[in-house]
Design brief:
single chain; 602 residues; alpha/beta; eight-stranded parallel beta barrel; four-stranded mixed sheet
């Protein structure tokens, strides 16, 4: 998260008032109308007295009979009209029961549902004792060993294919679900066999009509969304091909997934994971510092990460590890930015993938590397190409260890700043990345991570065509959630439309005391809820190329309390729980929105 990452929003301008009603009739006009009605009444009653009762009724029925004969002659049939069926809605009032972790088979192997369950154990670093909560113990593979047979925590059955138009240029095989027959009720998910023909997954509609949108779960309606985004036609892309391990390339997800960014090191992991599950998230993103794991001898001290991986899998969640912060001896200037030699990070990423094979489901390489301090102190024209070399080396090492892991290219920060000591603007960085060495990056990542803006702007606004009325941070697209559209356009122009996008940070700050984040003072907890929920629906209805959204963040308020840090620091202002773990309005809004979106997906 950086000073230019997603931020809070502000209400849009009020809608125009109701149309003024025309002036009523004058007293003279009312009197004249009354006299006309009285005269007409006298004529009708006089006629009725002159006509026999039965004949009077006949004159009333004749026009009706004539109308029915005319309709019959024209072939018009009566049509029964029923009220529209309501869309699925859900309201979760308690934490769901823990789900059984999925078991994943390697490509080309037959699933054995009757295989006995592996013994439960806890992996601890040498010389230490693991102290994971008893309720969150899980099976762990021996360090450095490939998993033998099914391992817990595989990707769900909606993985390994496409989610809808624009997600990729080809239909990829979907995973096959084998009915559970084992005594413990585990679900077995078999990855597609290379060369096997599978039906393409059902396509989601690109947009929903306005009357199909579910009602927001709480007061404070967002302004009506603008017209759906019309995607730029994709340039010619490479034909479908197999990737590492005979799996499709690039790996994609078939539906919109939901994850959360949180912190599980040396905190109440059981509560954090329970809250994440209760809110409806299925993915958890944990950032790790490479410098804290590898020492100067090249040894890896995995420490608490072993317990974190075990606990996330035991909670039935999917895990993305975000690698950042190099050891200082691997950088050109002794900082903790990107390493000088790509092979050093590749070695670490490969060891990570091998140790946690089958239990880490995605690896995100770096974070906001277009910022000078994330890059190593400065940022220049050659740095996007250097990052491509790092991606290529890391991708190769990860896939050699476990080809099922989704490799995610780090997201540039959403910024318009171009200053070597501060940042390179988002779009320039992406263009340079994709153009480097003839576009070589196209072969070395599955998914592109992107960070939209936010500030104090509603999620459906965008400068300059639909600017926000917030106070400040409104005069550049990088301050807006919809800036992700501009970033996606750069991908498509580079011929990378078959790679999906994961939004790995989005959110809105609330009042805080951190300089540079004053826009959060415009956002109440209720408005934070409305903007986050609005972003979920806007993505679902307009961005078929996004297949995962990670909210920033779950529990940084708790971490601030535990560390004695300023409780009004900006990181906690983005959280959806308070320091005592009690949910904020955004927690409940997300819970219902995620349930509703999941109900609309195949």
């Amino acid at each position: 998260m950086s000073s230019s990452s997603p931020r809070a929003l502000r209400p849009s301008p009020e809608h125009p008032g109701a149309h003024r009603q025309p002036a009523g009739p004058t007293a003279f006009e009312r009197a004249r109308a009354s006299r006309r009605h009285a005269a007409a009444h006298r004529r009708l009653t006089a006629g009725a007295r002159r006509c026999p009762p039965r004949l009077a009724r006949l004159w009333v029925l004749l026009p009706c009979a004539a109308l029915l004969l005319l309709l019959a002659a024209c072939g018009v049939q009566p049509v029964a009209v029923s009220a529209p069926a309501p869309l699925p809605t859900a309201q979760i009032l308690r934490a769901p029961d823990p789900e059984t972790p999925l078991r994943l088979d390697r490509p080309g192997t037959a699933a054995d549902p009757a295989a006995p369950a592996a013994p439960t154990s806890t992996v601890a670093p040498a010389g230490t004792t693991a102290e994971a909560p008893p309720a969150l113990q899980t099976t762990a593979a021996a360090p450095g060993d490939a998993p033998a047979g099914p391992v817990s925590g595989g990707l769900p059955d909606e993985a390994w294919g496409q989610r809808g138009p624009g997600a990729a240029s080809q239909a990829l095989p979907a995973a096959t679900v084998v009915p559970p027959v084992s005594s413990n009720g585990e679900i077995v998910v078999a990855l597609p066999t290379p060369g096997a023909t599978q039906p393409a997954p059902e396509q989601l509609p690109t947009t929903l009509a306005p009357d199909q949108l579910p009602t927001a779960p709480a007061p404070g309606q967002l302004p009506t969304a603008s017209a759906p985004v019309v995607a730029t036609p994709l340039p010619t892309v490479a034909p479908p091909r197999d990737g590492p391990g005979g799996l499709p390339y690039p790996l994609t997800l078939t539906r919109l997934n939901f994850g959360v960014v949180g912190h599980l090191y040396y905190t109440d992991r059981a509560t954090a994971l329970r809250k994440a599950r209760e809110a409806g998230f299925t993915w958890f993103r944990q950032q790790i510092h490479w410098r804290d794991i590898e020492d100067r001898s090249g040894a890896y001290l995995w420490g608490e990460l072993d317990n974190i991986v075990a606990d996330v899998n035991a909670a039935g969640m999917l895990l993305m590890i975000n690698i950042t912060r190099s050891p200082s001896w691997y950088t050109a200037n002794g900082s903790d930015g990107l390493p000088q030699d790509p092979a050093t990070l590749a070695r670490f990423a490969g060891a990570l993938a091998q140790r946690y094979s089958g239990r880490v489901h995605a690896i995100l390489i770096w974070n906001e590397q277009n910022l000078a301090y994330e890059n190593g102190g400065s940022i220049g024209p050659a740095d996007p190409g250097h990052f491509v070399e790092i991606m290529a080396a890391s991708y190769t090492a990860i896939k050699a260890a476990d080809p099922r892991i989704i490799v995610v290219a780090g997201a540039p920060a959403s910024t318009a700043t171009n200053n070597p000591g501060i940042a390179m603007d988002t779009l320039s960085y992406l263009r340079a990345m994709y153009a480097y060495n003839g576009g070589m990056i196209r072969d070395y990542f599955d998914v592109q991570a992107l960070h939209p803006g936010g500030s104090a702007n509603p999620p459906d606004t965008l400068y300059p065509e639909r600017p926000s009325s917030a106070q400040g941070w409104t005069d550049d697209p990088s301050f807006y959630f919809r800036h992700v559209e501009n970033q996606r356009k750069v991908m498509e122009e580079a011929g990378l439309g078959d790679h999906q996008v994961w939004i790995t940070e989005y959110g809105w700050a609330t009042p805080n005391s951190t300089p540079g984040y004053e826009f959060g003072n415009q956002i109440s907890y209720e408005l934070q809820r409305d903007y986050i929920v609005g972003a979920v629906w806007y993505t679902f209805n307009n961005y078929p190329w996004v297949s995962n959204m990670f909210l920033w963040n779950l529990n940084f308020t708790v971490l601030q309390r535990e560390s004695g840090r300023d409780p009004n620091h900006e990181q906690g202002s983005f959280s959806i729980v308070n320091a005592d773990w009690s949910p904020r309005p955004a927690f409940w809004g997300l819970q219902e929105a995620i349930a509703q979106v999941n109900g609309l997906q195949p």
